[in-house]
Amino acid sequence: MNKIIAICIIIIACCISVVNAGVIKGKATDEKGPALAFATIYVEGTTNGTNTNGEGIYELELQPGTYVLLCQYMGFKQAKFNVTIKDRETIVHNFKLAEQGLELKEAVIKANLEDQAYGIIRKTIARRKFHLQQAKSFQTSIYLKGVLRTRGMPDKVMGQKLREPQNNLDSNGKGVLYLLEEDADYYAKDGEEHTIIHSVHESGNPTGIGISKLPPVVSFYNNNVDVIGGAMRGYISPVSDNALNYYEYKLLGQFMESGHMISKISVKGKRLYEPCFYGEIYIVEGDFAIHSLNLTLVKESGLDALDTVTLKQLFILEAADTWVIKSQVTYVTIKFLEIDITGNFISVYNRQLVNEPLPDSLFENRTVSSYDKQANKKDTSYWTEARAIPLEQDENNDFVQKDSIRKILANPARLDSIRRKGNKFSIFRFLLLGYSYTSKEQKNIFSTNSALLGLGSDCMFNYNLVEGYNIAPKFTLRHKIDSFNYLVGESAVRYGFSNRHFNAIGRLTFVNEEKAWKGKTWMGGVEGGKYVFQYNPVNPVMSWFATYSMLLFRENDLRIYERWDASAFLRRNYGNGFNWFVKGGFQRRLPLQNTTDFSILPGDQKGMKSNVTTHLLETATAWEQHNAVILTASVSYKPGITYTQYPDFKVPNRSNWPRLILSWQKGLPGLLNSKVNFDKWRFSIQDDEISLKLLGSFSYNFAVGGFLNTDYVSIPDLFHLYGNRGLGYTNPYLQGFQFAQYYEFSNNDKIYVEGHVEYHLNGLLTNKIPGFRKWQWYLVFGGNAYYGKNSEYYSEAFVGLDNIGWKFIRLLRVDFVQSWDSHMGHNSGIRFGLALNGIKSTGVGLLGTEW
Question: DSSP letters of 636-664?
Fold first, then answer.
């Protein structure tokens, strides 16, 4: 009974507070009339307030009482307004702010005397750690509004239509591209963070989930400042420990505000192409804390895709010597392919509390962000009451119009028309990517491999010395049982016109995805048939590349055999960084021989190598037709996984910890006349990016492995280096060897070690080199090494340039590689690759396949 009464009292109190609340609203301008966009308005003596919108309009809800409202805007004098507000009263008050007058301290002018700003900056740097660490715990509410607008967009770019109806642009390509608002609470304690998103509203997307981890503040008390859309190295704070080595400062003047002397200081980088900000920073003397700032990054600061990023922040005094963030505005601009985009993201912080107790339950279960169950289901009436900043006219129109457009776009007849259009056969797409067909409601998706180029898979038409010209189509059918379960049927057929061998193989896989936990899956399946396989199961030689290199250059590196196969596999991913894979099966292996030596270009037989090398024959126990029963198991773990809890599901976030992988393979003799008898293992630790901030980033992949017994090891069971003899194209970085012969170092050693390292400078050094710094090409250094028994080794070092491209498209990388090995061999040359060509799974693919 007491609980019921208490609940009723709370409900009544909430209702009374809503009914009694008054509203003060108006506009903030300068004395000449122009609006002050995103000016800060708050109640004196508290941290509660709001900001104006881009048109200078504000609205603030207050309980009945007497208040002093403060209006602040950088470069203008603080304005005050005394107001008494009554029940349900609406008061209109417009703030007119005068430009802030500045005074300069008297100083004795001497040659080489540094500007007065340097003394203030040194004292601020000395207190940097104090301000960074003074908040042992921190909590605040956050209202975020973000909008991207186009100032111009062509109707088409490279034949691709851009002005789609859902974009809601006018005839000149102007309009709102993206509009978002969120309401959240943020908590931090002892290095742990938790953001709770109470509501989110995306224009045109009623199920949108916005930004899951709102940054509470970009802290310039950190030595290195990360900015969304900025360089990987980060940027040097104007008050970092080593800032004086990078920045020039000038005291522009001082003024008094609420009893504090504020110094306005101009900051700019000493040199172009350093990761530095440009603008003004305001420092509170005595506390030597940041009062506000207006800092900009430009292309010369190291921005890749964006043209400019501007950060504006305002802090207010929460307690003695404790300044807390009140508002933050991020402005971005970008121009590319005649598309001109500008955007702003404003965060309003209210009810800040510093060093107040926070329950440990907030930081349990490694959840860094969570959404209320109804966060993205709030209606218009809720947002009318809840939003901290009034919408601008085009924003209000965008919410209304895109909601109407969404309903039109969701029309089943229209969606079916788009589906049918996408199903039309295109010879260009078929040659490069293959063909795909999607049924209604995406119940079934059918696809093939490409005809000629094999982007992502082998192509249909190939040539090699064993089969001659061959046709090898592959087919995939994905059948959706429901939203979280589906069947995948895959098949491949192959016919060689020279050896006249026909092969066919198939696989059926069931996949289950957990509804409430993205990334938590299990899959199992069976496969069987007869097909052509490479000796190395990671398939280092792409079939289309082997075709062109043989026909045009008489270079033959493809080594293949036929195999009857019957197997079953099971994979489990727990969505927490841990997963495992098991596979068992029967194989009947059939050696193959070359049957042709045709090449388009005439030449000698130098490249016409046998389908099996002398080294492979000497290393393997035997290479003959034989049966093999193979068991494979692997486990992988990546610690440090955190989670985001969305309204209907949980998602694991990226971890900064390395991944650990242990694999084991067993050849079982006797069973089904199996001859193989071996135990092969491998342990690896890998990390594709360790941030070194200004110094760049480091990546590595180290492995140790070997054979516990080698009673019968066939050629496919040997350990094979991921070699590469292709004509200039690299194999996967941090996994392959760029100049190692494909099977020259294959072995059955009891133990071997392997290592791959890369150091990406991310603009370090190249920002001193004309041309490179303008093009934003970055240096990369590294090496790959293998060491086995009898001091057999292969090693190579490389220096390259990555980040080659333009704007968002920076995928190309070029390396010069020099190799050394124990066979008295060495090689050097150029390798071209893609920056995304990093660590990938080896041995077996996602569904347990080598084909």
Answer: EE-----EEE-SS-EEEPPPSSPEEEEEE
Q: b/e for 42-74, b at 16 or more Cβ within 10 A?
A: bbeeebbbbbbbbbbbbbbbbeeeebebbbbbb
Q: How far is CA 40 from CA 29, 56, 71, 139, 420, in A?
A: 12, 10, 6, 20, 52
Residue 390 belongs to some domain of the structure? yes
Residue 167 lies in a domain: yes
Are residue 257 and residue 145 in the same domain, yes or no?
yes
Q: Please, which residues have CB within 8 angstroms of residue 246's CB and are 6 or more apart in sequence?
A: 236, 269, 270, 271, 274, 276
Is 849 a member of any domain?
no
The CA angle 679-681-683, to the nearest 5 degrees, is 170
The CATH number covering residue 674 comes to: 2.40.160.50
- Report the number of distinct structural domains present in the chain: 3
> Residue 650: pLDDT above 60?
yes
CA 837 to CA 178: how far, in whole Å?
Answer: 31
Q: Has residue 417 been placed in a domain?
A: no
CATH number at residue 51: 2.60.40.10
156 with 264, same domain: the answer is yes
The answer to whether residues 590 and 626 touch, using CB atoms and an 8 Å cutoff, is no
Q: Which domain holds residue 687?
A: 455-834
DSSP-derived 3-state class of residue 103: strand
pTM (2 d.p.): 0.90
DSSP conformation class of 750: S
Identify whether the C-beta of residue 751 lies closer than 8 Å to the C-beta of residue 567. no
Two tokens at 654?
Answer: 């990226």
Same-domain check for residues 690 and 797: yes
Say how far apart CA 428 and CA 441 lie, in whole Å: 26
Contacts of residue 629, defined as CB under 8 A and 6 or more positions apart, other chains included, come to: 584, 585, 586, 587, 667, 668, 671, 672, 674, 676
CB-based contact 546:462 (threshold 8 Å): yes
Nearest one of 5, 2, 17 to 88, comparing CA atoms = 17
Task: For residue 395, list its beta bridge partners.
Answer: none
The yes-or-no verdict on residue 693 having pLDDT over 90 is yes
Q: Give the pair of three-digit tokens for residue 779.
A: 């240096």
| Tens-place pLDDT, residues 122-139 | 999 999 999 999 999 999
Q: What are phi and psi of 694, to 5 degrees?
A: -65, -25
Residue 1 banded pLDDT, cuts 50, 70, 90: very low
Indicate if 695 and 827 belong to the same structural domain: yes
The answer to whether residues 88 and 130 belong to one domain is: no
Is the predicted pLDDT of residue 6 greater than 50, yes or no?
no
Question: Tell me, what DSSP letter sits at residue 602?
Answer: -
Nearest to 23 by CA among 56, 73, 60: 60
- Show the tokens assigned to 174: 């102007």
Assess contact for 124 and 288: CB atoms under 8 A. Answer: yes
Task: Examine the pLDDT at 13 and tell me if it is beyond 70.
Answer: no
Residue 63 DSSP label: -
Do 782 and 658 lie in one domain? The reply is: yes
Residue 687 CA to residue 757 CA, distance in Å, equals: 10
**pLDDT greater at residue 55 or residue 837:** 55
pLDDT at residue 68, as a whole number:
97
Sequence-distant (6+) residues with CB within 8 A of 723 are 540, 731, 736, 737, 740, 741, 742, 743, 744, 745
Query: If 0-12 CB within 10 Å is exposed, 13-18 middle and 19+ buried, where does residue 380 land?
Result: exposed
Residue 530 and residue 607 in one domain: yes
Residue 162 and residue 82 share a domain: no
Q: How far is it, in rounded angstroms, from Cα 201 to Cα 687?
A: 36
Mean pLDDT of 336-365: 92
Nearest to 197 by CA among 187, 215, 183, 208: 183
Average pLDDT for the chain = 91
Task: Write out the E strands in 414-513.
Answer: 436-438, 444-448, 461-464, 468-471, 474-482, 485-496, 502-513
Boundary residue ending a domain (374, 408, 442): 408
